[in-house]
Design a protein that fits this description.
- The chain is built from six helices and two strands.
- The protein is mostly helical.
- It has a two-stranded antiparallel sheet.
- The protein starts with 7 loop residues before the first helix and ends in a 6-residue tail after the last helix.
- InterPro entries: DUF7791.
- It comes from Podospora bellae-mahoneyi.
Length: 118
């Protein structure tokens, strides 16, 4: 996949064949059989080759999927925490519908919209 990429030759000419082969071997070794990780790294490396990034920047791409996954996990955890707090404050009067918070019953919305509750 990488070796057949049109810009692969530019990496080989910049670093040498051994260094480029070492990069491929690092991808294999660090993947631990996780295809998604290989796909992300390969995509990042191909994008870097297209942008004429230097080898050091290509090497950086090997760690990028872990950083991306950690960021996603942190944001997911924060979102779950927000939803739990909203549920606690509203005592079940609101519910989570995918990524939105909605009134559990239409009558609750109507009640909160009355002039007395404004």
């Amino acid at each position: 996949m990488l070796r057949s990429y049109p810009r692969w030759d530019s990496l080989v000419s910049e670093t040498g064949n051994d260094q480029a082969d070492s990069l491929v071997q690092q991808i294999i070794d660090r993947s631990s059989g996780v295809f998604l990780w290989v796909t992300l790294v390969t995509w990042l490396l191909r994008e870097g080759l297209t942008n004429d990034d230097k080898y050091e920047e290509e090497d950086y791409a090997l760690g990028e999927p872990e950083r991306m996954i950690a960021t996603l996990q942190q944001r997911t955890s924060q979102a779950a925490s927000v939803f739990r707090r909203v549920n606690g404050w509203c005592k079940g009067l609101l519910e989570r519908n995918h990524d939105e918070i909605e009134f559990l019953h239409r009558t609750l919305y109507d009640f909160l919209s009355t002039p007395e509750m404004q």
